[in-house]
Amino acid sequence: MWGVIYVLPWLVGFILFFFIPLLASLRYSMSTIQANAEGIAIQFTGVANYIQALTVNTSFNRALIESITDVLVNVPLIVIFSLFLAVILNQKFRGRAVARSIFFLPVILASGVIMSLESTSLIDAVNQNSTGGSALGTFELENLMLDAGVSEWIVTYLSSAVDRIYQIVSQSGVQILIFLAGIQTISPQLYEASKMEGATGYEAFWKITFPMVSPLIFVNAIYTIIDSFANNAMTELIRDTGFVKFDFGLSSAMAWVYFLAIAIILVIVSIIFSKRVFYQD
């Protein structure tokens, strides 16, 4: 009973502000919507909007593929980077609190005026300048790894990570905080026992830290996927179709296809991670 009372405010808000609009958007996706003197006229058309989105609209499939590709590339990089930074920030050193604040600042700044500045010419110029300046270094790094016998697709993936460093850092604040909180809950006796047994720091990470934070890797992977899908070219296309071209039926159909694609990816990731996550009894 107390559990129901606890979630009741959220449940009421979900039904009123999310579930009802969700059903309305499903209805709109199967209809044509026209505004006239009497109000809004809704005419059922079946799956015509879905067919138009997938076969007629020239931008939808491209934006959908680009969004999914970006997620497949960015999510592993963000999760690995967040775990690496969390392990470092958990160490005892001077200025640790300042360092933690610096890496969490993008989360605070990624809204409002600061977020809008990212699309201005000044920020674009800075990004292009930094990309151009590091192009030669990235090229040399690629050649060095290829000469060392590293697989070509791994080299390409790592070099793309260098080009995406701004995006990776700006989207890692919450994940770093979650990993840091999880690492601090690990019993120090485990590390003391491993040290007495002669384990190195590398072995302690893979045998203690990594298994103990594996549930948080699962959580951060799901969070990062949803966060990456929340604001990209696909959402811009859906928004422009609905509120610039005023084609709410097509916009709703695009949103539902996008929603189903996200749901499928989340189910696949959940199945993969659930078999490898370690839960301490």
UniProtKB/TrEMBL annotation:
InterPro entries noted in UniProt = MetI-like (IPR000515), MetI-like_sf (IPR035906), UgpAE/MalFG_permease (IPR050809)
Q: Which domain of life is it from?
A: Bacteria
One Pfam family cited in the UniProt record for this chain? BPD_transp_1
For whether the record's keyword set contains DNA damage, the answer is no
Entry keyword set: Cell membrane, Membrane, Transmembrane, Transmembrane helix, Transport
- Family, similarity comment: Belongs to the binding-protein-dependent transport system permease family.
Which protein are we looking at? Answer: Carbohydrate ABC transporter permease
**Which organism's genome codes for this protein?**
Paenibacillus illinoisensis
